[in-house]
Amino acid sequence: MKKYNFGAGPSTISDEVYRKLSKSIIKLNDYDLSILEISHRSNIFDDILEKTIYLFRKLLNINNDYSVLFLSGGATKQFFMIPYNFLENIKKNECAGYIDSGFWSYKAINYAKYFGNIDVIASSRHDNYKFIPKKYKILFDKKKYKYLHFTSNNTIVGTQFKQIPKINNIPIISDMSSDILSKFINIRDFDMIYASSQKNIGPLGVTIVIIKKEFAKSISNNIPGIMNYKNHINSKSVMNTPNIFAIYGIMLNLEWLKNKGGIKIIEEENNLKAKLLYSEIDRNSMLEGTVNIEDRSFMNICFNIKNKDLKDKLVMLLNENNIVGFLGHKLHPYFRISLYNAINLHQVKFLIKILQLFEKKYS
Fold first, then answer.
1. What distance separates the 2 farthest-apart alpha carbons in the chain?
2. Chain mean pLDDT for the chain
3. What does the domain layout of the chain look like in residue ranges?
4. How far are the Cα atoms of 274, 325, 348, 359 from residue 305, in angstroms, in the given order?
5. By three-state DSSP, how is residue 183 classified?
6. Which H/E stretch holds residue 194?
7. Helical axes 74-86 vs 103-112, angle rounded to 10°
8. How far is C-alpha 211 from the geometric centre of its chain's CA atoms?
9. Is the dihedral of CA 167, 173, 179, 185 positive or negative?
């Protein structure tokens, strides 16, 4: 029996995509070559890249005002690429606004401080990030904001923005690593979105950047080539050798999502999966949620056992039933269930059944 992987990333991918990706390692379609030896300068890869971009545009309704890039270095690299590009040569009264809602946004803030003035306009750090901060302190009379950065879903603590923080036409940049492609977004609300690939997008090893071309025009030419977004736009993501295998896997995963019915259908499924699991957590006498109910993530669901002495019992029960990836981040050692797109309803119902069995055995 294949294990059920509820890990926060790399996440599970549909069986259909696994099969196609596995075959491509031996032989990619009719090319008599492995996907691992395809040149990034070949027509074969040109077709793969073009189709992958097309599928992104189709699924997220991305118009030609935006470029879709495939970069390396994970979302963490974007933590310094963004301020490096947009805070270059800033004036004394200029800054970037950041919302501190979790571990990754806090890390992005600390990276950005190396490059310019940073104004943290809201934070929930003082309460262990148990809620999404919604009261923003903006100093329009003293500062000009080059952009506003927020992390749409907080993978570690399990909170999620339900509304985009639009403030006085400040350009918006969002780290959407753990909820992109899981729900509808209006791409026109954003000037830039970035996301690491290993959750809803596909295999690990690629960072997706969706950037408004007009926004990119403000970037200084003094930034070294590989670090400059304008250069990646002009080179169509092949400024250096991209991760061809991962991009091919992303193409297959986006095809799978499109064939399922696209964002509308997957959002309905994701909402149902999360509601079922949260209902069980709230009902189960042995369990308790860890964050404000109104800010609960539908991607990363965190909970604790009321009786901490029974933690090992639940861990053992889950392992015995081939459920893996359920323990939280080392900074927050509670249980965390990640319900990314490829997790199906059957898997969630099976998990709920095991949680109910735990209650029956130990309550």
1. 65
2. 95
3. 27-260, 261-362
4. 19, 17, 19, 10
5. coil
6. strand 192-196
7. 40
8. 16
9. positive
C-alpha dist (Å) from residue 144 to 15, 87, 97 = 49, 12, 9
Q: What is the pLDDT of residues 137-186, one digit of tens each?
A: 887 767 889 999 999 999 999 999 999 998 888 999 999 999 999 999 99
Cα–Cα distance, 290 to 14 (Å, whole number): 29
Percent of the chain surpassing pLDDT 90: 89
Structure tokens at 287: 């369990």
Cα–Cα distance between 348 and 67 in angstroms, integer? 36
Amino acid at 66: Y
- Domain 27-260: give its CATH code: 3.40.640.10
DSSP for 110-164 reads: HHHTTTS-EEEEEE-GGGTT-S--------TTT-EEEEEEEESEETTTTEE-SS-
* Measured distance CA(147)–CA(87) in Å, rounded: 9
CATH of 261-362 given 3.40.630.30, 3.90.1150.10, 2.40.160.20, 3.40.50.460: 3.90.1150.10
Residue 19 parent element (H or E): helix 15-26
Three state DSSP letters for 66-124: EEEEEECCHHHHHHHHHHHHHCCCCCCCEEEEEEECCHHHHHHHHHHCCCCCEEEEEEC
Residue type, 339: L
